[in-house]
Structure formats: C-alpha cells, structure tokens
Amino acid sequence: MPAGALFGGQTQRAVLNFPISGLRPSPAFVAAIVRIKRAAARVHQGTGRLEAASADAIVRASDEVLAGSHAEAFVVDVYQAGAGTSLNMNVNEVLANRANELLGTPRGGYAPVHPNDHVNMAQSTNDVIPTAMRIAVVTEARALVSSLDTLVTSLRAKASEFDGIVKAGRSHLQDAMPIRLGQEFAAWAGTLERARRRVEAATDDLRDIGIGGTAVGTGVNAEPVYPERMVNELVANAGIELRLGLDPVQLMQSMGDFTAFSAALRGVALDLSKISSDIRLLASGPRTGLNEIALPAVQPGSSIMPGKINPSIPEMVNQVCYQVIGNDTTVAFAAEHGQLELNVMMPVIAHNLLQSERILANAIRVFDERCVRGIMADAAQAAYWVERSAALATALAPYIGYAKAAELSKESLKTGESIRELATRLKVLPDDELKRVLDLRAMTEIGVPGNTVGRKP
User: Fold this and answer.
1) What is the pLDDT of residue 450?
2) Contact 246, 338 (CB under 8 A)
3) Is 146 annotated as catalytic?
4) Cis bond before residue 112 (omega within 30° of 0)
5) What's residue 64's pLDDT?
6) What is the pLDDT of residue 3?
7) DSSP assignment of 46-100
8) pLDDT tens digits, 397-424
9) Three-class SS state of 169
10) Cβ count near 220 (within 10 Å)
C-alpha cells in the first residue's frame, strides 16, 4: 500500500491488476457512487440498521468528496474488472477510512466503519454501478442540453441576420436553385433542436433506477422500505428527477436505456459534424473557394504560409464528433455482451457515455462562442455565385419547357454567359416577364417564379 493512501487493499489490488490506460474514472461517475453511499447511510440510520455515529461519519466523508476533496484517492483504471466492483470498493474504502478518521480512529483498521459491512450495507456493485451510471449521465446531460440550446439560439440569430442574402444552393456539390443564407442557418438550428429533443427523451428513461435490487435484482439483504427511501434521498441530494424502476431485475439485465442515450448522442454528433463541415465548405477560400461566409480568425492557420487562417474550431468539432461516434460503437458492443442477470461491461459503457457527453458539451460551447457568433456573410460573393448558377434555368422551365431550359443551362456552361444574360440575348421571354421569372428572392419561396397567383403578399 502507498504510504498515507486513503484507499485500501482491494483498491490497491485493482491498481496492480489493471495498469491499462492511466485514465481515472470520471468525477461525475465517482460523485454519483458517493451520493449512493451517502443516501444509504441516511436510510439505514433512519431504519435503525446503522448506528447514528457511523452514519453521520459516512455522510460527512461523502460530503467532503462531493465538495472536491480526496479526488486523488480514486485511482482505479477505467478498464477494470467486470461490473465495476473495483471502483465500488475504491469508493467504499475511501469513505470508510475517512469516516473512521473523523471518528478519531486511524485509517486502515476499518473500525468502527467497515467498507463492506457499513458503507456498502444492503448494496451490491450490481445495483450501485448501474444506478450511479444513470445518475451521472442524467446529471451531465444538463450541460449538453444547455449548450445545444445556446447554439440553436445563436444559429437562429444568424438566420435572421442573413435572411436577406440570396445565394446559390448546391446539391451533389453542383449548382442548385437559390436559397437564402438565413434559410441554411435556420435549417441547422432546426436540426439541432430535433437532436436535443431526442437527447431529452433518452435521458428521461435513465431516470428509472434499480437501487435496492442488490445482487441479481431481487433485493436480497435490502429492507422493503429501502428502495423508495433511497430514491427520495438521492433526489434531494443529487438535485435531479429520479424514479424507482418498476422491475429492478430488468434494469440490472439490460443496458438498453444506455444504448438509446448513446444513440441520441451519436445523432447529435452526426448532425453537428455535418453542420461543421458545411460551414467549413462555405468559408473555403478566400480566393479559390466559395467564400460566402467568413469565420472568426482564432489562431494562425499555418506554420509556413503567412496570413493563412484555417477553420480551426469547426475542425475541432468534427474530430470530437468522430470520437463520439466511435464511443457509441463501443457502448453498443458492450451492452450486447451482458449475460443473464448482469452486464459486466458497465465500466466501459460508463466511461464512453460520460466522455461523449463531456466533450460534446464542451465542443458545442466553444463552437458557439468562438465560431458561430462571429460568422460574417459576404453578400457580394454570394450574389456573384448565384448569378452564375446554371440551375437558374429551372425557373424558366414552366414557361419554355424542360428541354429548352436544359439547352440554356448547357449553353451557359459552354459560353460562360449567365442564364440571365443568355435568356435576354435569345429573348426566350419578354424582358419584363423574364425579370419577374428570374427574381432570385422569389425563387427561395414556394411557388412558380414570375407567377404571382397564390403567392404570399
């Protein structure tokens, strides 16, 4: 044992057995386990099962950890023995040792507070760890949802700011009908709003907890009043909504709620990565790309090319999203690999879910603050590209037919003349009608360009 260690022998065995990654458990995960131990001490004190002095000492030790003390004592690698027994015992030992110190006895003797008999009373790793996972994931989801809300607000503000800028639409990376830059930003906002709703729906299922199921979900060694009282204590201490699950056996066997939440995070990552890539594309240039928007210059972009500015923030966002997508794959495989009454792969599920939440929330916040809010539109560049779009011939198709419109498009590409210039020269329509039909703003709304019947005023 290291001199002065607050943990005990079982933790040290895990340290020696699993020198794998050097990664420590998420502070949110440790805090959730500690909250369970704190709540259990209070419940057992209330039922008379745990002596008041010992219960109070466990609660005081728990409060110290929750306030940020003793973080160095939680040393078990994230890749550890199945189910999370090593981490559960790490917490049990730290709280027992600290409780005994508070009671005036040296650490390591486990008297009067014992890590298994008292800190782990009426608990099993098998119900503590999945309950802690639910508490931690639900707690961390608040920051993710908040960051999404803020980004959506910024995107909607940009949508309003850019609503008057008509630009070339593009599909298949080829010319398409005009669209307003504000419409593109509004669509991104709507996409992330839908992604946020999926996260919130998946989060709600994680509020059902199976604490009190103990070893296999049947509740052996737990008092009948214990599960409900635990939920009440945890709600009061954790500050989040939780519910007692209807079937603790099912909640212990299945990681389905976690895979659904992971899938929701993957959905956020996929949508966010696509938006980041779109922004990088629209900002490409400044001379040889689209250059329809300009991003804030947050840092020099090259160590060799002076003055080069790269889309550094969106590039970071893409990388974070790829990590989250990979984490989801790990969660899926781990969730499938549970056998009978228990899924022993819970530690890696917890690690990947909590990492995904944390890095997504941080990336979204930075993306909003250091990129989206500072985006500027280049209206002149947008106008330049849209006037040269061969797709403008589409607006003429209802008047001159698809085949003739296609000929105009091909001729425009061949000669370099714009559709407007070519149609004017060939007099495909009278000048005043042609002007109405090729009204770029009108092309960005529902209706037949040039036909005002039924069009919104």
Assistant:
1) 87
2) no
3) no
4) yes
5) 98
6) 83
7) HHTSS-HHHHHHHHHHHHHHHTTTTGGG----SS-SGGGHHHHHHHHHHHHHHHH
8) 999 999 999 999 999 999 999 999 999 9
9) strand
10) 11
Q: Are strands 376-377 and 293-294 parallel, antiparallel or unpaired?
A: antiparallel
Superfamily of the domain at 388-444: Fumarase/aspartase (C-terminal domain) (1.10.40.30)
**Residue 209 carries which side chain, given as an amino acid letter?**
I
pLDDT confidence tier of residue 452, bands split at 50, 70 and 90: low
Among the listed residues 302, 303, 389, 409, the single catalytic one is 302
Give the SS3 label for residue 435: helix
Q: Which CATH superfamily is domain 127-380 in?
A: Fumarase/aspartase (Central domain) (1.20.200.10)
How many residues comprise the chain?
457
Joined together, the tokens standing for residue 209 give 């907890």
User: Mean pLDDT score of the chain, rounded to an integer?
Assistant: 96
* Cβ neighbours of residue 451 closer than 8 Å, sequence gap 6 or more: 398
Q: What is the Cα–Cα distance from 238 to 243, expressed in whole angstroms?
A: 13
Ranges for all domains in the chain classified under CATH 1.10.275.10:
9-121
- The closest alpha carbon to 78, from 129, 34, 19, 123, belongs to 19
Q: Is the pLDDT of residue 457 over 60?
A: no
Contact 368, 154 (CB under 8 A): yes
Q: Burial level of 313, CB count in 10 A (0-12/13-18/19+)?
A: buried
- Encode pLDDT of 157-185 as tens digits: 999 999 999 999 999 999 999 999 999 99
pTM over the 0.70 mark: yes
What stretch(es) of the chain map to CATH 1.10.40.30? 388-444
Taking only the tens place, the pLDDT of each residue in 278-307 is 999 999 999 999 999 999 998 887 778 878
Tokens 């709280």, located at residue: 95
pLDDT value of position 331: 98
CB-facing half-sphere around the CA of 403: CA atoms within 13 A: 0
> The domain 9-121: what is its CATH number?
1.10.275.10
Q: What CA–CA distance (Å, rounded) separates 48 from 435?
A: 87
Per-residue pLDDT, averaged over 7-25, amounts to 97
> Where exactly does CATH 1.20.200.10 map onto the chain?
127-380
- Rounded to whole angstroms, the Cα distance separating 214 from 220 reads 6
